[in-house]
Amino acid sequence: MDTDIEKYESIGYLLRNIKNGNDYHNTFNAILEKFESLIKKNSFLNGEVNCDLKSELYVAFIKCINKFSIDEKYYLELLKIFYNNINSSN
């Protein structure tokens, strides 16, 4: 299993690849794979999966990927914080 540092570095690598247009489809799927469990986990409303909420989370995820700027390391740090906060809520 990857350490947290390896996860962050691989996410950064994948985000740089997607922004550079390197194998967009496979790279996007690799990023989605890392966050899909978090999206699914946060799709529950009143104990059941809410399809509308799940769809909105996917849309928000895609927007975040598209807005990410490889020149701004600040956003990668925010992604790390987000990842830690979501995982610590388990």
Mean pLDDT, as a whole number? Answer: 80
Strand content: under 5%
The rounded distance between the terminal residues' Cα atoms is 18 Å
Residue share in helix: over 70%
Total E-strand runs = 2
SS-based structural class?
A: mainly alpha
Which strand order do you get reading across the main beta sheet? 1-2
Provide the low-confidence segments as ranges: none
Shape: globular
Q: Which sequence of SSEs, written as H and E, runs from N to C?
A: HHEEHH
| Number of separate structural domains | 1
Brief description of this entry?
The protein has helices at residues 4-19, 24-41, 51-67, 73-88, and strands spanning 44-45, 48-49.
Would you write up a description of this structure?
Helix content is 74%, strand content 4%. A two-stranded antiparallel ribbon has the order 1-2. Strand 1 and strand 2 form a beta hairpin. Helix 1 packs across helix 2. It is globular and about 40 Å long.
List the main descriptive attributes of the protein structure presented here.
4% strand, single chain, 90 residues, 4 helices, mainly alpha, 74% helix, globular, two-stranded antiparallel ribbon
Write the layout of secondary structure elements.
Blueprint: H1 4-19, H2 24-41, E1 44-45, E2 48-49, H3 51-67, H4 73-88
Antiparallel strand pairs: 1-2
